[in-house]
């Protein structure tokens, strides 16, 4: 029975308000238990770093995620490894064979020029859903705001379903400073000129997640969420934690 007035959440096959988890090798049996309780709170699952290539029972895991209408994909590091070794055609075949329909094109480790990424997107966007990524894993690399905006805009125009803002699973690079503080001015600038419904902000900790919920609203897209944190995150989105307690029912900020 629902009796509280809470912020309105998107539901079902969401296109925004997404929770994208990161799976660093959750055993299949454990994952079954997690999804049986919390599967409806998860929209996307990233099989972290390049772990998919050496993971046991990968096809079974992919199928399990899909049973719960969760979109699985491999971390961008695996894409970059294949790009570095000129194995992109083999990588695409590999994804098809294990039933993965989403693909991340990143440049977190390698510096892949934006034009090369755009060309790749144009070649494969009819066969896969594409998630682009902007920002580097190098905490010493700091892109100007104008470059962030331009790359996100170009990636979306090229056919990406979503663009991720790099933050690492540690929250220490990309949209974060080395110390873990959020580059709030960058976030405000991105939300001013871009459609936040198509941006997934990497937010690995509750502190990071609550910043985005308070600034953008309960239906902000969040990535790199730990599997064990999905219920806490949903509680935060619904104003059921002290830090988000006074979240307005219809607070959407820059989300139209």
From TrEMBL:
Molecular function (Gene Ontology), one example: phosphosulfolactate synthase activity
EC number per UniProt: 4.4.1.19
Gene3D superfamilies in the cross-refs: Aldolase class I
Keyword NAD: no
Classification via Pfam families: ComA
Keywords, in A-Z order: Lyase
Record has Phosphoprotein as a keyword: no
Listed PANTHER family: PROTEIN HEAT-STRESS-ASSOCIATED 32, PTHR48413
Annotated family: Belongs to the phosphosulfolactate synthase family.
Protein's recorded name: Phosphosulfolactate synthase
Native organism: Bacillus salipaludis
